[in-house]
Design a protein that fits this description.
Blueprint lengths: L1 H10 L9 E3 L7 H9 L3 E5 L4 H7 L8 H13 L5 E5 L1 E2 L7 H10 L4 E2 L2 E2 L4 H5 L1 H4 L3 H20 L5 E2 L3
Parallel strand pairs: 1-2, 2-3, 4-6, 5-7
Helix pairs in contact: 5-8
């Protein structure tokens, strides 16, 4: 809030069009924050790795998990608040490779018109867990091909969906 107010104050004379974006896991989202993002026309991005078992395995959360909460806030942000945009990013781990079709279907059910699977890179925590979560480039390529084919098939059926890496 502080940064937004300062930028607005400095921008009064210049009249520039300011675009705001926030990347969040949505675990601390509430109505007050959502309203602030709406009022300031924020774009919102969140990681959303697919079906519950994959999302919660990739993004462990203290307590009961966060899948339902994330899904609820994705829907609210898309339907109840007027934001600049709402984007979802799936990080693909070894466990997620088998869920390409389910991932596309889930994104479509959430009202997304595009999907951009994020290839796992061997850096940070991924590097130290590579044996558990990593994969070979060819494995990701097969996953990605299935995602693209699913998007093409949905589009042929009149349910537009695009894969944005291609």
């Amino acid at each position: 809030k502080f940064v937004v107010e300062k930028v607005k104050e400095k921008n009064k004379e210049k009249g520039k069009n300011i675009l705001w974006n926030v990347v969040t896991n949505l675990t601390l989202m509430d109505g007050e924050k959502a309203k602030f993002f709406e009022e300031n026309k924020f774009g919102l991005s969140t990681s959303f790795d697919g079906p519950k078992e994959i999302h919660e395995k990739n993004r462990p959360f203290t307590g009961n998990g966060n899948y339902e909460q994330v899904v609820e806030w994705i829907k609210k942000m898309k339907n109840d608040y007027k934001l600049g945009s709402v984007g979802l990013l799936p990080t693909i781990t070894k466990q997620g490779l088998a869920y390409a079709k389910e991932l596309v279907k889930l994104y479509a059910e959430l009202g997304m018109k595009d999907i951009r699977p994020v290839v796992l890179r061997k850096v940070g925590r991924a590097a130290s867990n590579w044996e558990k979560i990593g994969y070979e480039p060819e494995q990701f390529l097969e996953f990605w091909k299935t995602v693209v084919e699913e998007c093409i098939e949905r589009t042929r059926q009149g349910k537009f969906m695009t894969e944005t890496m291609s």
